[in-house]
């Protein structure tokens, strides 16, 4: 299943995420995902595993054109010239000549003028064909408005925390208004551990509403949640390094949720974020330097 971005580029709806995947496990995870049928890999400079993603793609034996590669610019590389150089760092590690989707990792509102400059560099990379699409991540509606007021190209994608317990309807509505595809990170429940955020959270994987729907179709809660994303037109990038789980997360094309089931999952929203607040400045984390190689 593919989604068409606002510039006509098509992107596989389901991708493998590699956030917090140790580099020594990432190559095998990517290789397993591509063998399963995935054709979209989502990584980031700040994950420290772009090189291993590239190794996994090459080991798969697939043509470069068959795999949609998405990566992200980290805040310490914001600024016009710095972001142009980020493309060189990313393509060098991935060992490719073009990126399919390059996005800004955070709005970083404490230095938004550098965020704008970074996005203008993405526009330049798009114009000369070094990337096929550009976008953002963790942008709230007010960040989007500021960006759109200051730049020319509407982002193709906004990647945000989105799962049944945190659906961000205001962000989804703002994305839809501007023709921006909403892409879900932590799509199967916000269970990734963020030190300092969400220690008291409930695990949506154990939610009885989702468990009941899963039982109806003989599917897992994770499969139900991923199907929920797809049927509502979103991209989702579940993360795993377990080959069986990677395969399970892709096995979601043989059933369809009813409108009532979709509504019942939507109703689980608590409004509680598990990851960091995009409006908070995180100076120490934002200062993390991305290695050249």
Describe the structure.
With 293 residues, the protein is of the alpha/beta class. It has 11 helices and 10 strands. It has helices at residues 23-36, 50-60, 80-94, 112-127, 141-150, 169-177, 208-217, 221-231, 243-250, 259-266, 283-286, and strands at 2-4, 10-12, 16-17, 40-42, 68-73, 101-104, 134-137, 157-161, 181-185, 235-236. The protein has an 8-stranded parallel sheet. The protein has a two-stranded antiparallel ribbon with strand order 1-2. Helix 3 packs across helix 4. The longest helix is centred in the middle third of the chain and has 16 residues, at 112-127. The protein is globular, with a radius of gyration of 18 Å.
Measured by DSSP, the beta-strand proportion falls in 5-15%
What is the residue-averaged pLDDT? Answer: 94
Q: What's the helix-strand series? A: EEEHEHEHEHEHEHEHHEHHH
Question: What gyration radius follows from the Cα positions, in whole Å?
Answer: 18 Å
Please describe the biggest sheet, giving its number of strands, its sense, and whether it closes into a barrel: 8 strands, parallel
Q: How many strand segments?
A: 10
How far the N terminus sits from the C terminus, by CA atoms, comes to: 34 Å
Form type: globular
Number of helices: 11
Pairing-aware structural class of the strands and helices?
alpha/beta
The unreliable regions are none
Overall helicity: 25-40%
- As laid out across the biggest beta sheet, the strand order is 3-4-5-6-7-8-9-10
């Amino acid at each position: 299943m593919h989604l068409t971005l606002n510039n006509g580029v098509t992107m596989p709806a389901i991708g493998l995420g590699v956030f917090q995947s140790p580099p020594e496990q990432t190559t095998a995870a990517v290789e397993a995902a591509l063998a399963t049928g995935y054709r979209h890999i989502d990584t980031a400079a700040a994950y420290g595993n772009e090189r291993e993603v590239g190794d996994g793609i090459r080991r798969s034996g697939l043509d470069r054109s068959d795999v949609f590669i998405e990566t992200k610019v980290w805040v310490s590389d914001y600024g016009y010239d710095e972001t142009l150089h980020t493309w060189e760092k990313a393509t060098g590690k991935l060992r490719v000549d073009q990126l399919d989707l390059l996005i800004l990792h955070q709005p970083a509102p404490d230095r938004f003028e550098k965020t704008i400059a970074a996005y203008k560099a993405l526009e330049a990379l798009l114009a000369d064909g070094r990337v096929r699409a550009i976008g953002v991540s963790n942008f709230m509606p007010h960040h989007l408005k500021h960006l759109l007021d200051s730049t020319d190209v509407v982002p193709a994608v906004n990647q945000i925390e989105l799962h049944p317990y945190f659906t961000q309807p205001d962000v989804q509505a703002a994305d839809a208004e501007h023709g921006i595809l909403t892409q879900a990170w932590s799509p199967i429940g916000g269970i990734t551990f963020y030190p300092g955020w969400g220690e008291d959270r409930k695990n949506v994987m154990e939610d009885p509403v989702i468990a009941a729907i899963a039982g109806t179709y003989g599917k897992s809660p994770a499969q139900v949640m991923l199907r929920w994303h797809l049927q509502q037109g979103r991209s989702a990038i579940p993360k795993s390094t377990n080959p069986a789980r990677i395969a399970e997360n892709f096995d979601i094309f043989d059933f369809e949720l009813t409108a009532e089931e979709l509504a019942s999952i939507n109703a689980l929203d608590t409004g509680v974020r598990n990851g960091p607040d995009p409006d908070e400045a995180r100076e120490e984390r934002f200062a993390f330097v991305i290695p050249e190689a």
